[in-house]
Design a protein that fits this description.
CATH topology of the largest domain: OB fold (Dihydrolipoamide Acetyltransferase, E2P)
Order of helices and strands: HEEEHEEEE
Oligomer: single chain
Shape: elongated
CATH class of the largest domain: Mainly Beta
Number of strands: 7
Number of domains: 2
Strand order of the largest sheet: 1-2-3-5-4
CATH superfamily of the largest domain: Nucleic acid-binding proteins
Length: 141
Amino acid sequence: MNRVTRNIHLVAMACALGIYAAALPVAAHHSFATYDPTKTLTLKGTVKTFQWTNPHVVIWLVVKPEGGGEPQEWSVETTSPGVLTRAGWTRHSINPGDRVSIEYHPLRDGSHGGGLAAVTLLDTGVRLQVSTAAQEKPGLQ
């Protein structure tokens, strides 16, 4: 192997390693380890915001606690817009003001949030489902 060919191979290897190293934080970001997939809870509230953005779509919800008290803001995360689009969702599937019932996998630390399993629009009965625990392909039901 001559010197030029060797240098080209070294540069190619360095580029490949650089791309791999840069991708590691992205892979770590897409972890759903913060949610407890062994538990599925239900939450009812009103949609404040439906955040249709990469890398994950988020439903921001206002929930009135059972037994009274100040309304609480919750965030329920799901998969990417691309995956949801392939399953039939759109950026208008859920809208601010919609009353919803959400099935979710709770955050392990107990804070107000979780990974979406399914959402039912209470005024229409439409049910949208996705599994963040296993990152399976979501679908409409």
